[in-house]
Amino acid sequence: MSFSTAFSETDNNTEPLELRKIMKAMGNDMQNILAAINNEDWSAIKQSAVNIAEHPKPPFTEKIRILSFIGTDTAQFKKLDTITHNTAMELVKLAEQENGNAIIDKFAQLQKSCLNCHQSFRKPFQAHFYGK
């Protein structure tokens, strides 16, 4: 992975990025879906999947900082976000059909899309924006 050198040093402010809050909320929605699958709570699955698909975007200035850091990997980042969005929307449709087995399969795909993004971007983000 090649990250842009637009910021040669860490860009770590004391305030966490809004992106971190968004990711935490999405993680909570993933946990909610898992619990809802166990309870066959189709409406809860649908709501949490909608939350994931329609997650908020970071503020414009933060988005610029993130995209400047990602540089040439911006297309990959956006592709992974699109896959997550589309997979979550497919999960919404399956929840409307109350199709438990298909929901489990689609949820696994959603987990994989999250994992792919995290494995590509989490450590570099933490190092750059938080000095970790």
Biggest β-sheet description: none
Query: What's the Cα radius of gyration?
Result: 16 Å
CATH topology: Four Helix Bundle (Hemerythrin (Met), subunit A)
CATH superfamily: Cytochrome c/b562
- Please identify, by name, the CATH architecture: Up-down Bundle
Number of strands: 0
Helix-strand blueprint:
Elements: H1 18-39, H2 42-53, H3 60-70, H4 74-97, H5 100-130
Helix pairs in contact: 1-2, 1-5, 2-4, 4-5
Describe it for me?
The protein has 132 residues and is an all-alpha fold. The chain has a single domain (18-130), classed as Up-down Bundle (Four Helix Bundle (Hemerythrin (Met), subunit A)). It contains five helices and no strands. Helix 1 (18-39) runs antiparallel to helix 2, helix 1 (18-39) runs antiparallel to helix 5 and helix 4 packs antiparallel against helix 5 (100-130). It is elongated and about 40 Å long. 21% of the residues are buried. Mean pLDDT is 90; it is low at 1-10.
